[in-house]
Fold these 3 entries.
Entry 1:
Amino acid sequence: MREGRWLSAVIAITAAAMAMSGCASSAPSQVVSQTSRFDRIIDLDPADTSGDVALEEVLDSRRSGRSFAGSSVSLDVLGQLLWAGQGVTDAQGHRTAPSAGARYPIELYAITADEVMRYRPNSHQVDVRSDARVLGGLAELAFGQSFVSAAPLVIAVIAEPARTAAEYGAAAEPLVDRESGHVAQNILLQATALGLSSVPVGGFDPHAIAELLALPPGQDVRYLIPVG
């Protein structure tokens, strides 16, 4: 099965990366200087908190889809998807997905054909930089899954485990893994409610994608979610 081949490849790549650097989540030093490439901020429209589709209907109809129309995802739809994953829902700063100790180690990046964006949950904005390389490079780094780069939008679920480790120590890693799943499922359900196709992708080279996205050290990629 394809899943078996992906898992074998992930294990091999992760083992090699750990042997070289001690941790596949550590982006190389040259990437750190690139993180300032976010050169502008865009406000997102307020999220819709009273949709027309029942949760039960969304749960019943959610399926993984790997075929996407060529049209781009609008900014208001992007904002709704990002809010579903990590939006702030009250004055205390709680978010749409549960987080152990409310440490919120998850970052969301949105990749389109010509831009990379990073979500700012507290202000419901995105940091933006122009970059036409990233979307096209994702498929190769996802072991040749061509549909990843065929999507008009890919949401990357990024984790910074140190935020959770500050309170939970060695127990942080499994907690962050579970939280990544909560966030991904929220995005998938929101995509379904909006009539979009989406699929969670876990087969990829996390070290190489960290470089491609110019992630700072200590952050790594847990999911890619093509949407369209």
Entry 2:
Amino acid sequence: MVKKEKYKLMVTRREAFEIDDEPDHSMMIVEMEGEPIEYQVGVAGEFVSRRSVTVHDRVRGWGLMEGYVMAHFQHGTAYSRFKGSRDGLNKITEGTWTTYRGTGKLTGTQGAGRFKLVPAEKQGEFILHIEGEYEAA
């Protein structure tokens, strides 16, 4: 199945650590929760919640990030891993995602695709665009 979704994400926790090897180099751990903006109900039923935990390595706003997402639905949970990089000029992060585990009706689900994360109007909020394909077991 083709997956094309959009979520509003909000930062719920953020911790930054300065590295001191060059100006404006930091590592951050960021937790976000989200809700769907555009989403189709699938085999696991209605959306319940979404949480991600990400590690960012940035120099002057540019850098790599990777993390995990737990997407909970009425009849199962999908666990995915993602990697990307942030363009410090336009503050857009793009990368790839892969589903590695599912529970309930999502047991055995495999999926992969691309994402784009753009800042929303409000500080600490972002819009996540997801595209890809997945196969339910």
Entry 3:
Amino acid sequence: MQYQKEDVRNRIVDAAKTEFLRVGYFRASMLQISNRAHVPIGNLYRYFASKASLYDAIVGTAKERIIECIENGKGISIEADNLGGNSTKIIVNKASDGFLDLSKNYHKEIILLTQKSGGSAYDGFINEVIGRIRELLKDRLGNLCNDSNEFLFDIVADNVTRGAFRILTECPIEQQHDEIVKLLVFYFNHLEDRLY
């Protein structure tokens, strides 16, 4: 009996993911998800009390992993005098590996979070990530952050975040590592030299 319950739950989640990807959170309906999953609507509500709880079941873990990846970036030492050479390569490769891990495990969920979450509790997800990246940059590159550079860090955080998500959602998986490396090198290689 437990196997049947798990099978029904998985069918609901798969159908919901397909529907959310097709029309987005706002336009998706529980009735359409029910029909797609071949599960009576009443039974669907036994598994998920609302569309919001169903969406959370699909994207919640991916969101946590993305935030965790950013928080782990705070442990990477980026010192102004180490931004060139091998240090940059190590940092860029470590960040690229983190992005690729996210893409491999949560590709559809990242699309949902970044492009299809309008009307949900995750609607401001990209802005939340941009804010966290901005704080990471300020934390790691604080000695370069003065009043004249504060606005620049905001712009860099916005562009790096949107660029990374665009790569993760639009590039074939086999090209993502190289594209992420190019993005990060473009913004961060020899940064100190370019700020003055």
